[in-house]
Design brief:
alpha/beta; Rossmann fold; 9-stranded mixed β-sheet; globular; hydrolase
Length: 311
């Protein structure tokens, strides 16, 4: 059974920045509920839900959860039945330190749709969440999908040593060592850019992005991440190559969103050009066009989502 968010958390929360169009406190997100379901292997997963209409399911990235989507939920709940899945070992869901691979998370997404009796939905993935959706399409097909939105995820993070620079750019690949990338992401250990060529953490900050500061501080207080259980998942995530799924199994209208600060922006344009009915939007640097663009610029992002899904 779903619980109202205030009942679930036992208190309200006031956001530090008052931004027109965004909630000033948690209770402003009317109808927000926290629900749960049990997967086919007996794991309890949570989701955030608000609104009515066509289901729109968000699949967050690695280490992210529904709390970070509080602004997006607030805006889009007036247009869609919005869900944000807290994947296993993420957010409010069970922490197991096992079953940490993308195919299991893709199956969890299928279990969510079945548990909630969702026959058709729009799916939106961010970062690793795109890979989870690609895995879902690979295993279960696209019969339950209306439209797709992908936010800034490289089709192949791992770069094979015999690839040309052109192959690397098209795949979005930026890591020659999964182990060094894991050390960078979890332990913040400096790494030679010849091994992991990304400056993503230069943009993982809330300075100058008040909407992101609101959602980030809310998430840190109410749903702090547990990274120890996510090391194996990150390794599995790094080693996948989804270009065959993108090229041959995506048959729904697709919007790809990235930014000029992204290290793999060219691969994002290529995804949109590869799928049968694809288009891309590239945020400028002045529009917070980095890996966290939807959290930093939720009003612009939500409007573009609404326009695309209502076409």
């Amino acid at each position: 059974m779903n619980k109202p968010a205030l009942e679930y958390f036992g208190r309200d929360h006031v956001f530090p920045h008052d931004i027109p169009g965004l909630p000033s406190k948690l209770s402003d997100v009317e109808g927000l509920e926290i629900g749960s379901f049990t997967t086919n292997d007996g794991v309890s997963l949570s989701y955030w839900k608000a609104g009515k209409g066509t289901p729109l399911v968000f699949v967050p990235g690695w280490s992210s959860n529904g709390a970070e989507y509080i602004n997006i939920i607030h805006i889009l709940k007036d247009h869609f039945e919005v869900y944000v899945l807290d994947q296993r070992n993420h957010g409010l869901s069970d922490k197991l330190q096992i079953e940490n691979h993308i195919s299991r998370l893709s199956s969890d997404l299928n279990d969510l749709l079945n548990a909630l009796k969702i026959e058709k939905a729009h799916l939106c993935g961010w970062s690793m969440g795109c890979s989870v959706i690609w895995g879902y399409i690979d295993i279960f097909g696209s019969d339950k999908i209306e439209k797709l939105i992908f936010i800034d995820e490289a089709p192949s993070i791992y770069c094979h040593s015999d690839w040309t620079q052109e192959e690397r750019t098209k795949a979005g690949a930026f890591a020659l060592s999964a182990e060094r990338m894991i050390a960078l992401y979890i332990e913040e250990t400096p790494v030679n850019r010849l091994l992991v060529d990304t400056d993503i953490f230069n943009f993982y900050n809330i300075k100058g992005a008040p909407a992101f500061e609101n959602s980030h501080l809310f998430a840190e207080e109410f749903v702090p991440p547990v990274l120890d259980s996510l090391k194996h998942l990150l390794f599995n995530h790094i080693m996948n190559d989804w270009r065959d799924v993108i090229a041959h199994k995506i048959n729904k209208p697709t919007l790809v969103i990235s930014g000029e600060h992204s290290n793999w922006v060219e691969s994002q344009r290529l995804i949109a050009e590869t799928v049968p009915d694809g288009r891309s939007i590239i945020y400028s640097k002045d529009e917070h066009g980095d890996h966290f663009l939807h959290l930093k610029n939720p009003l612009k992002f939500a409007e573009q989502v609404r326009t695309f899904l209502n076409e």
